[in-house]
Amino acid sequence: MQGVSAGFELNLADVILLNLAYEISGSCTSIVAQDTNGKIYLARNMDYLFPEILKNITIDILYVTNGQVAYTATTYVGYVGILTGQSPGKFSISANERSSGFLWENAVSAIMLKGIPDSWLLRNTLDEAKDYKEAVQKLSNTPTIRNIYYTVAGVNPGEGVVVSRNRTGAVNMLHLNPLNGEWYIVQTNYDHWTTPLTSDFRRCAFTAFLWHLFL
């Protein structure tokens, strides 16, 4: 963040605030699905009300190691974490805010549990995990500052999961199960075993879109 501050000639406090914005409030939808050929898809939408602003600061980044692309991400200018990323030929991940708990608990988790921001964990996983299984384990067990959902898509049939977690680890894992008719998962900002607010129609809208797209 010091590098971003210096490079863009911005106040360091403003850069830190930008990088903690999603830890304070976030709204998004993630989808993992498998088609009839066994191909896995990960889709994500940032459900904010200011798309024109985000459009102007959204970038795709290639992270290169020894001349090879190690992983890629779609992110924002000045944001050092990652909310959506891909490790080519291995897995893809997206993070969604989990609407539970209290804001002050995030500070306690950072200090007492040494939790890290969920976007940093996602980036670390892209950098370190060797495959889908290792990525899911890392995302499920590493302490984070706040409650979060991670949607992970692999490259083999059946490799798709939503990890619902609190600050210490996973509390629920919902896997794709195409043989049982469960070929997609739509994750917004509510636990999948609960009913969303009546004013929030995202789950129904994206489910209808999937059926129209694939069937």
Structure notes:
The chain has helices at 2-8, 12-19, 21-24, 51-57, 103-112, 118-128, 132-141, 202-214, and strands spanning 28-34, 40-46, 58-65, 68-76, 84-87, 91-97, 148-153, 160-165, 170-175, 184-187. It has 215 residues and is α+β, with helices and mostly antiparallel strands. The strands form 2 sheets. The protein has a 7-stranded antiparallel sheet with strand order 3-4-5-6-7-8-9. Strand 3 (58-65) and strand 4 (68-76) form a beta hairpin. It is globular, with a radius of gyration of 17 Å. The chain starts with a helix and ends with a helix. The mean pLDDT is 85.
What layout of secondary structure does this protein have?
Elements: H1 2-8, H2 12-19, H3 21-24, E1 28-34, E2 40-46, H4 51-57, E3 58-65, E4 68-76, E5 84-87, E6 91-97, H5 103-112, H6 118-128, H7 132-141, E7 148-153, E8 160-165, E9 170-175, E10 184-187, H8 202-214
